[in-house]
Amino acid sequence: MGKGCNYCTLWADEINGIFHHMESIAPVVLASPDEPSVMAEFAKSRNWKFHLISTAGSEFKQSLDFETKPGPPQPGVLILKMKDDGTIYQYTKANFDPGDDFCGIWSFLDLLPEEEADWHPKKKY
Fold it and tell me: For residue 106, what are the CA distances in angstroms to 14, 29, 43, 96, 100?
């Protein structure tokens, strides 16, 4: 979820809107490829309330299969769980893509006339 991706910003804005509901069930942390200072400034400008971590300079994205080849990372959601012995494991994972079930705007866009189908998110309108 980096500053350079309008789609990631769209997903993060939606997560921010439901954050307090999600946080009542499980911790919510978003990872960004941006340097911590860039990430913090951008999050503040968007009024994001969730926790953020920077993956800059690490192999975090690769180790969780969110970046499997050179090029931009693939955004998504990952649920980690802890066993009784303290071992943390990947419980489930899904990628984010335009039209996915994780962002409510896609369902609304599906109701619009066909000529509106080429919509792309922006950081400002």
Answer: 12, 23, 23, 12, 7
94 three-state secondary structure: strand
Contacts of 35 (CB under 8 A, 6+ apart): 54, 56
Q: What is the pLDDT along the chain (125 residues), one digit of tens a residue?
A: 678 888 889 999 999 999 999 999 999 999 998 999 999 999 999 999 999 999 888 988 888 888 777 767 788 899 999 999 999 999 999 989 888 888 989 888 888 887 666 788 998 88
Indicate the angle between helix axes 6-23 and 36-46, nearest 10 degrees.
70
C-alpha neighbours within 13 Å on the C-beta side of residue 35: 2
Question: Is the Cβ–Cβ distance between 30 and 10 less than 8 Å?
Answer: no
| Residue 47: CB atoms within 10 Å | 8
